[in-house]
Structures are given as structure tokens and as C-alpha cells.
Amino acid sequence: MPGLPKGQRIVGEAREDLASDLVRRYEKGASIRELAESTGRSYGFVHRLLTDAGANLRGRGGATRRKSTTAAKSAKSR
Q: 49 and 15 in contact (C-beta within 8 Å)?
């Protein structure tokens, strides 16, 4: 939903429509920062809107990084 008026409050049906659009895009993999940039809104606004809409927010930093068992054994043998 690009082109939202900057600084103008979004309430009622417009807020619900925006929230459902952002939740859909977030669940398809868009980051909160990407959503904020595309709507011209702040990170905090988008985060709050997603939270209020009941979105299941991902953890910070993407996927958890783990050493594979092979890499761990290789490191020990050095």
C-alpha cells in the first residue's frame, strides 16, 4: 500500500485493511523494515500494527545458526 499520507492517522477500516495486507506480506517473508519502507511508516508503527493484528512475529536475525556435526568433528580433530 504505497502512497499512505505521511503523518496522517490511519484508523478504522483503513487501519484494518492495512494491517491485513501487512500481515499477509509479513507471513510471506517480508521483514518489518521492508514493510515500513514500502508504506512510508516507521518500524515501530508496523511492528505495533502486526502485533495488534495477531501476527506471529519471527525472532530477530533470521534462522538460528548452528555448526553441523561434521563441521564440529572436523574442528575438534585439528
A: yes
Query: pLDDT tens for residues 54-76?
Result: 999 998 875 555 666 655 555 55
- The torsion of the CA quartet 64, 70, 72, 74, rounded to 10 degrees, works out to -150
| DSSP H helix total and E strand total for the chain | 4, 0
Whether 69 maps to a domain, the answer reads no
Q: How confident is the model at residue 20 (pLDDT cuts 50, 70, 90)?
A: very high
Question: Residues 30, 22, 4, CA angle at the centre, nearest 5°?
Answer: 110
| Count of structural domains within the chain | 1
| Cβ-contact 4, 10 below 8 angstroms | yes
> Is 77 contained in some domain?
no
Q: What is the pTM of this model?
A: 0.70
